[in-house]
From TrEMBL:
Residues 113-287 form the Pus10 N-terminal eukaryotes domain. The keyword S-adenosyl-L-methionine does not apply. Its EC number is 5.4.99.25. NCBIfam families: pseudo_Pus10arc. It comes from Nyctibius bracteatus (Rufous potoo). GO terms for cellular component: mitochondrion; nucleus. It comes from the Eukaryota. This is tRNA pseudouridine synthase Pus10. Its main location: cytoplasm. SUPFAM superfamilies: Pseudouridine synthase.
Amino acid sequence: MSSLTEKDRPIVQLLLNTGTCPRCILRFCCVGSQTLYRCPYKDLMKDLKEFLKNNQEKEDTDCFDVVDPPCKRIRLEHTEEGPDDLKHNGALQQIPSVNDENTAVENSAVKVCNVCLGILQEFCEADFVKKVCQKVNSAGYQFTSFVFSVSLPPQLSVRERAAWLLVKQEVGNLGLSLAKDDIVQLKEAYKWIIHPQLSEELGVPADGKSLFEVSVVFAHPETDEECHFLATACPDCFKPAKNKQSVFTRMAVIKALEKIKEEDFLKHFPCPPSSPKNLCVALEIQCNNGAVFVAGRYNKYSRNLPQTPWIIDGERKLESSVEELISEHLMAQFKADSFNFSSSGREDVDVRTLGNGRPFAIELVNPRRIHFTAEEMKGLQQTINNSSDKIQVRDLQLVTRSAIGRMKEGEEEKTKTYSALIWTDKAIQKEDIAFLDDIKELKLDQKTPLRVLHRRPLAVRRRIIHTMKSEYVDEHHFRLHLKTQAGTYIKEFVHGDFGRTKPNIGSLLNRTADILELDVESVDVDWPPTLDN
C-alpha cells in the first residue's frame, strides 16, 4: 500500500531520530504515491509529526490516505538476518530514543538530510526549479518536450546502503524484511517531484523519449572521500579510465557495494550515516539537443578542392574543402556545436563530381534550432550555392539518423560512372582502342594503391569494370567512359600503379598510359530522395 501504516511507525521514528528528511523516510517506507512526494516539505514534516502522535491503533492519517497503485512494499516474512545489531566497528550505533516527537521533528526540519544530502530538500523547491528554467530559456534552444537527467554524487549510494542496513535491522526485529529493491530510488522520487514543476515552468511536457535533455550534476565535496574505503575492500571495481577524472564513479561504487559483505561495510562506515553540515551543490545545469541530420547531393567543379580539410603533419595544404563550404552555412543556421560529415565515397582533390552529384549527410551536434520548413531548407540550399562557384548542392533536406544508413548500404555493390582523359606514350589510332568497348565485366585485382597506403590497410581487392566506351581525341590522347563497381581505384586502373593493379589500361594497350583528368559522372545511390528544386 502507498500510505503509511502502523508497521511504518518504527521506521519513521528511527529515521527522524537519525536526521533523515521526510521524503527519504517515505522512500524507505516504500511509499509509491508520487502525489505525496510533491507535498510541500514543511507539510510533510508536519504530517509525519502527526502520524507519530496518533494512536497506534489508527493505521493511516488523512494526509497519507492517497489512493495510488503501490510500487514498493515491505514484505511480511521472516528472513535470515546478518549479524545482529551490527554497527560501526562491528555493531549498529545505539540510536538515542526521543520520547518527545516534537523535538525529533523540529531537529530533522533544520538538518541537511543524512541520506540524500539535501537533494530532496532545497533542490525540490521552486527557487531551484526557476534557476534551472532560466538556464534553459537563456540557452536559446528550440524544443517541444524535454527529458530530465540527474547525476548524483557516488557517495549517496554508500549513505543509502548504510540507511538501508539500519532500517533492515529495525524491521527485522519486528519479524519483517526490507529488500534494497523495495526502496523507492532517490532519482525516481526526485523526478516525481521535479518533472511537473519543470513542465509547468517551461510550458512543455516531460517525455522520456525527448531529444532535448536538461541535466543537473550534483556534488557534495564535504563527503567526497566516503567512497574511498571501497577501493581497499573491492579494488577490482575501481579501474582508471581515460575519460574519467576519478575512479569513484557511481557505477563503480554500486558494483563495489554489491560485492562487499555487510559486516565489512559496517566496519568502515557509520550506520546510521552522519549528518552533513552542508547541502549538495549543483555543479552544472546543462542543456543538450539531440543531433539533427541534413542530407543532399553535391557537385564539385574544382580540381583543386579536397572533400575534407587537407592537413598533412599539422599543416593545412588548401584553404577550403567541400565539407567546409557546405557545413559552415548549416552550422550557422542550426546554431550547432559541431558537425560530422559523411558521404557515399569520396573523390580526390583533382577530381570533379558532375551529373546528379554525390550523396552526403551532415550530423549537426547539439543544435539550438531544429525546426525548418521545406521553403527554409530550399533557401539554405540557395545560400550555399551562392557562396561558391566550386560546389553546388541539391536535394537538401532533413533526414533521420536511421535513413543515413541507406547511403552506406551495399556501398561496394553500387556502381559509379567516370570519364577519364588518358595519355599514351606511343601514338594510337581509333582502331587501337576500339576493342575496349567490347570488354564487359572485367575483373581487376587491386593491391592497395601506394598513394593511400598510409591510411588504408594493405590488401588485394577484387573489383569489376562493368563497361567501357572509348572516345578518340588525338594520337596520344583518348577519353574513356567507365561504369565500375563502387570502390574501384580508377587512376590505378589506368596507369597500373607499378603493377599493383592487374590488368590495367597500360597492359591492355601494351604501352605506357597515364590519366590526365578524371570526372565522376554519376554515383548510383538512390538516396536521398529527389526534391523539386
